[in-house]
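Next comes a concrete protein, fold included:
___
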Amino acid sequence: MMLVSPSDIGAINRGRILQALYDNGPTSRADLARKAGVNRTTVTGIVQPMIEEKLLVEGKAARPAVQGGKPARPLFFNRDAPMLAAVLLLPGRIQTCLVTLTGEISALEKATFDVNGDVEAFKRILTETLARSLEQAAQPPFGIGIAAGGMIDSDRGVIVTVSLAPVLTGLPITDILGTHFGLPVVIDHHPRALLVGDRWFGPGRGQQNFAAIYTGEVLGGAYYINGQVYRGLAGSGGELGHTVVQLDGHACNCGKQGCWETIATLSWLRREAERLGLDRPDTVTSARLVAEAEGGGSRAESLLDRYARNIAVGIANLQQTLSLNFYILHGDAATGGAGLSSAIERHVRSFVLTRPNQDITIVSNGLGEGHTALRGAAGLVVSEHLKLKI
């Protein structure tokens, strides 16, 4: 019995070859075959259609390493290929841009919207903002990728609910943008877009198992397991912020109690900062706490360690369940840099059972949430266009 279909194998191999190009730059067919773990015939069968579609181009022949050998021509992404349009949609904030196949961002536009406002007014702001980015494209993009906060049905292209932005709840956003612009549109949960951005362009390169963790006003996460993004039914997997860590804990925005989100987001951090009497508690962030702790602030140091412990609780549960070993921080937690990530890692190690050869690593993505999410949204378009298994 065949457990993996030929089309799935082809998609996986395409993903491996493209990742090898992202990781290594211009690469010959022979080297691609070696790095992707496939044979030369498979490489040719995959890259030739992409050359014909002008996604890839062949460079000048390099001098052969062995006398008499055939000169190798490195392959890489075509700088003149159609670009990818990307949208980052978070409560009250819109970012749109164009992204090249190699991840360069241009035509960045920003806008704000009323989270409790009129749906038609929101749709007008969104389409006008995206139109300003698209106007700067030399040719029609391959498609539009959306990274959105809230609960997302990625199969239907619908934003199911956003507690911090009710105007977005129930919005069939892929139909709205697809009809308006006449382009293919794909959407995924904001943390999964961060994960795709990490995998293609950031600290997740070369990793076969890892998780992206986002903290800010909300908490979210996404998993990359055995070389593929885990999405769950209709994109419902990865609601990490609403895993329960305190049975009798605080009420959450979702209506439940004791969610991880209630102890590992900015709202908790700022409430505690106010209780402890820190100056301007409503402006406290991880970055500020790290700076104050390094300057000798004992209250800041104590609060930072408690915050690190709260973030570590959820990661430890994830580690015990999936043993991913590699975790990338985004959002507010990432602004704490190595000072916060090392504290979180220390707490995670204290929570989990020790196993042979287990090497838990926690890092911050210093590229910035917006750029990583936008690159990830663009990666969704590439994945859809090329039918990749990522």
The first helix runs from residue 6 to 24. The chain has a mean pLDDT of 89. Residues 6-77 form a domain with the Arc Repressor Mutant, subunit A fold (CATH 1.10.10.10).
